[in-house]
Amino acid sequence: MNDDQTSGLEFLEEPSDFQISRRDFFKVAGSGIFVLFTLGDTLLAQQRQGSRLPTDFNAFLKIGEDGRVSCYVGKIEMGQGIVTSLPQMLADELDVSVDSVDIVMGDTDLCPWDMGTFGSLSTRSFGPSLRAAGAEARQVLLELGSEQMKIAVDNLATEDGFVVDKTNKEHRVSYAQLAKGKKIERHASGKVALKKPAEFKIMSASLTRRDAQEKVTGNAKYTGDIRLPGMLYAKVLRPPAHGAKFIDVDVSEAKKMKDVQVVREGDFVAVLHKYPDVAEEALSKIKAKFDQPTSVLDDKNIFDHLVKVAPAGRSVSTNGDLKAGESAAKIIVEESYFNAYVAHSAIEPHAAIANIEGGKATVWVSTQNPFTCKEEIAKELGFPSQNVRVITPYVGGGFGGKTTNLQALDAARLAKITGKPVQVAYTRKEEFFFDSFRPAAVVKIKSGVTDKGKISLWDYGVYFAGERGAQHFYDIPNANTTAYNSSWVGASGSHPFATGPWRAPGNNTNSFARESQIDIMAAKVGIDPLEFRLQNLGDKRMIRVLKASAEKFGWKPGKAPSGRGRGIACGIDAGTYVASIAEVKVDKGTGNVQVKRVVCAQDMGVVINPEGATIQMEGCIMMGLGYTLTEQVHFKGGDILEANFDTYQIPRFSWLPKIETVILDNKELDPQGGGEPAIVTMGGAVANAIYDAVGIRMHHLPMTPERILEEMKES
Amino acid sequence: MEESAMTETIQFTLNGKPMKLTVDSDRMLLWVLRTDLELTGTKYGCGESLCGACTVVVDNIAVRSCQTPVKHIQGREVVTIEGLMKEGKLHPLQRAFMDHDALQCGYCTPGMIMNAYSVLRNHPKPSAADIIEGMNDNLCRCGAHNRIVQAIQMAAKEVEGGF
What we know:
The complex is a heterodimer.
Chain A: H1 22-28, E1 32-37, E2 59-63, E3 69-73, H2 82-94, E4 101-105, H3 121-149, E5 156-159, E6 162-165, E7 168-174, H4 175-179, E8 183-187, H5 212-217, E9 232-236, E10 246-250, H6 252-255, E11 261-265, E12 268-273, H7 276-284, E13 287-290, H8 302-309, E14 313-319, H9 322-328, E15 331-339, E16 351-357, E17 360-365, H10 370-381, E18 388-391, H11 406-418, E19 422-425, H12 428-434, E20 441-449, E21 455-463, E22 479-484, H13 507-524, H14 529-535, H15 540-553, E23 566-573, E24 576-586, E25 593-603, H16 610-629, E26 635-636, E27 639-640, E28 658-663, H17 682-694, E29 700-701, H18 705-714
Parallel strand pairs in A: 1-8, 3-4, 9-19, 15-29, 17-18, 21-22, 25-28
Antiparallel strand pairs in A: 1-2, 2-3, 5-6, 6-7, 9-12, 10-13, 11-12, 14-22, 15-20, 16-17, 16-19, 20-21, 23-24, 24-25, 26-27
Helix pairs in contact in A: 2-3, 10-11, 13-17, 16-17
Chain B: E1 7-14, E2 17-24, H1 29-36, E3 55-58, E4 61-64, E5 77-79, H2 92-99, H3 109-122, H4 128-135, H5 145-159
Parallel strand pairs in B: 1-5
Antiparallel strand pairs in B: 1-2, 3-4, 3-5
Helix pairs in contact in B: 2-5, 3-4
């Protein structure tokens, strides 16, 4: 994690133009027991070109001669807490204390290739592999112990870093002793049984974050905190709007400033100084001309535009016969839902530092995907990929936004031009300008319900949000789900700027639309919204989370709008089932919505770190209030009108509802995602609560005071 | 090449120690702390006093160092996150943030703690409402708000009667 952390693999620091072969790897990696492991579904050989480490494993652990366990993974820590939860898993499988496990993350020279940290995958997908490696290592230790102690493996156990004789626990040998002078390579075969949840000692217990002390003392190093000798801070000239073409520039005033270096290569113009604020001042003295972009799109006409330019639909699922569904219905509901572009707004803006020495680039980057970033930098510099090393310090929030790494390319380019280490850190304005926003999206739903309150028809089309969460989970005999532009990246000619994944990509949009539509039908047939959901559900996990949230909330049945301001919504994300109930107060004079209370229940399979999981749920609820109530990117003709947190309002302390979370025990199921699911229900739960409070149905996210007032005027 | 006209000597107390700097006194304290003084615990988040990541305490009041020119701290007492530990011991606020898991990515944390320090200085027995009001202009994107409020409440009990 930290640049000053000892890795145990210092040999990799030696400059090398060549990939390290497996034989060399073991020649230099010191003594110990090594377990290499892979994730079957991410074995994309072509993406692994240029890795310095052998490419047939994703991560490895080493039990060294000092008995310490080191784990090398390409994942990164951005607040989600895997710097704590991954060592927890390993410690439990290996029967060692968490304190004896070191983890090295996100360093492309020390860690094997990894696709990136996103999609709530670290615990869900990576976790079982890591545990399998731990279990395998434990098996090796038992075998070594058996040899040394002359006792059959069956009569041995492991305990706190020792192999012990079951009949006489005084008779034991430490892992350190067993690893001494050995060089043992194993691959996680997946054949060694993992511990059962009942056997967990560390995994299911809550543990204070390992990074907490560094973070509360200001010692934790983020990318921008690293300052190399002779380093210059660079500020790059940016266009005033997306699509604006560079015409001319006058850098003479900036050049007059003492110690300011000006770089110009075509339309790439930058100023550098040993202080970032002086570089910023120099940038302000540059006079540049750009032409006006031709785009006429803005945040109001974008929705019509998107529907118009949408590519042909992709069928997500289909069953039954829509015509039959329509004729069976007593009531047909046809609605459209919209959501604005939303920014990631991590408090740490993107930053990178590049240092090029001896034809090798070392680049520190605030990134969620160091290995992708490494390839991008290699391409930018024209370097062979193995001559680029990306190191990922602590990342100050990602949410999907730090999967784009343009700042690293600027830093690398400037380091090459100037021959000095260069830091590029975005201002907040740049952060908004270059953000890959959550796409604006439209959902159109036609649905029907019988006189008995059964949903008979569901015809669902989602434009530009993506497919995640588009698939409904209700029992509907005649249904069709189609995605028009099924990626968060838009087809050419659609979005006027970059879009990308945003915490639970697609699912916030889809769950808001689906759960609003369900509520409308419930209201039309006069059935309590919870009851209506339950009577249209067969999925037991969903029924269970809905009932759990209702019980915790103290849900009293009644048809909406009841004036009580209570709304319910449920969803599935990253394999986790979630149901949320929000209670709101709507100020009819100002249109302001205060969310008073949120109860959220979730079934996420085996819970590795209950405290960590709860924290993620609370974080999702708070962050979710933003896209629900205020967050929207205003723009006009390629000009991003948001430059800072004055106009772009993210949740703050005064919004804090009473938050209650329930995690349902489900030890039968492997760990599912935890970093994203609870955010997907916020839009729907709050929209439904607003309807319950004042009888207005909101179709647009965010539900700003202006929109609330407008809707109240119309109704 | 023009020399900066504003270079002057600034004397102040930094984390309990006397400090003398010869700098362009119009430069913002944030950058002087982070570069000249190599105290990188204080973070840049917005540059316009809108997020609080750069919060430091000057004469017991929380200020946004991103918009505080160095000349304004002449003769004053500045405390940054690096100055909270006393004799190797964490400040009660730091411990409370750890105990309550009142952080995720941790980037806003130094600013949160320094702002809370000032809130507690000015409200020795703060209610939850006092804390929320006092902290409202410090932004956290990870959504640790709930725990931050709890942590400050706990620390308030501990520091009651003086820091």
